[in-house]
Amino acid sequence: IMAEFTITKTLEDLKELFSQMKNVYFIKTANQALDAIKGADMELPVLDEGVTFDTGAADVSKIKLTTGAIWTSVATAGDADIQFQVASVAGEINELLMNKVADSAAMTATFNGKTYEGAGYNTEPKKVTGALFMTSEDGSTALYLPNIEGYSNLISERGKPAYFNVAVSPMNDKSKASIYILKEKEAVAPGG
């Protein structure tokens, strides 16, 4: 008698999706365990079509024998391409993503009946460190990058509000993880 071919996990068993990214939260303190996170320092206002999330394809080298047969392969990690378009020039966002060099600046004259005030920043690259917590559109899944380094540049183009293009590099945490892929925990019934 021949054994029947069995499938241990069906497609339905594996249908846990990270649908479109909905919320992106910045946490100033990097390398926190999930059970230690009690909140985020700010929710980043990310443009709907302004997200690229690619952890980097492996660079694979095939090792061949003198006969030409592939004997094995070795891989090195690819470069991550994780970018967000953060559409805000609020002071807290500016200070997170740029180097503040003048605490306050204000006009004394009017321009078209208005005066303006703000702060001064230079355009030297600023390294942003911390963590990111991102939730999916339906809230059933989340991604946690516990240790990131990022750099940004300010862009103003027609058809969009001015935004910071933030390029993020995920770094390993104390457990050597650079990304945690999470699913919604099933609620335990009272008394269960």
Brief summary:
This protein is mainly beta. It has 1 helix and 12 strands; from the N terminus they run ββββββαββββββ.
Using DSSP, what is the number of strands?
12
For the residues shown, what is the average pLDDT? 88
Characterize the overall form.
extended
Order of helices and strands: EEEEEEHEEEEEE
β-sheet strand percentage: over 45%
Query: Helix content range of the residues, please?
Result: under 10%
- By secondary-structure content and strand pairing, the structural class works out as mainly beta
List the helices and strands and how they pair.
Elements: E1 21-27, E2 42-44, E3 46-54, E4 59-64, E5 70-76, E6 81-86, H1 91-97, E7 99-106, E8 117-122, E9 128-136, E10 141-155, E11 163-170, E12 180-183
Antiparallel strand pairs: 1-2, 1-9, 3-6, 4-5, 6-11, 7-8, 9-10, 10-11, 10-12
Question: Could you explain how this protein is built, in words?
Answer:
The chain is mainly beta. Helices cover 4% and strands 46% of the residues. The protein is built from 1 helix and 12 strands, in the order ββββββαββββββ. It has one helix at residues 91-97; strands spanning 21-27, 42-44, 46-54, 59-64, 70-76, 81-86, 99-106, 117-122, 128-136, 141-155, 163-170, 180-183. The strands form 3 sheets. Strands 1, 2, 3, 6, 9, 10, 11 and 12 form an 8-stranded antiparallel sheet that branches. A two-stranded antiparallel ribbon has the order 4-5. A two-stranded antiparallel sheet has the order 7-8. The longest helix has 7 residues, at 91-97. The radius of gyration is 23 Å and the shape is extended. The two termini are 45 Å apart. The model has no long low-confidence stretch (mean pLDDT 88).
